[in-house]
Amino acid sequence: MVFMKGFFGTLISIVQLVAFELDSVRLLFDNNEGSPCNLSWRMILFSTHIVTRALDVAGEMQFLFVSEAALLNLSLLTSDLYAAIFDILTTGLHLTIHFYVAFFLIFAGIVLYEAGPSPANTHGGATPLDIEIRKRKNMGYE
Description:
Layout: H1 3-20, H2 22-29, H3 39-66, H4 69-91, H5 97-115
Helix pairs in contact: 4-5
């Protein structure tokens, strides 16, 4: 079911592309003489983007196979944090209080998540196969 992220993401992106960026797409595929980036180079860059996105999704699926979704989400939020730090250092971006609150919440989430036992660890824990359903006489169940 992980492919649903890519499926619905593609549908939403196509709708947004048609609604907001159709002129930019036309410029991408037009043969612009004098442009520093010819059509073949644009197609190479576009294809490279598609391949790297596919590798990203494959990597996320592999990560989910060996770990939990909560840790993946925290990792993705942490990468956004690194992008913001890069913007601060390279462009001198001034951040609002919202950034610092979000940073604290990410940090607290990582600490709380790592403080407890792993939910993926099923040794000694209950699994759906361990649950018994008992029928009661008065409600049709015992």
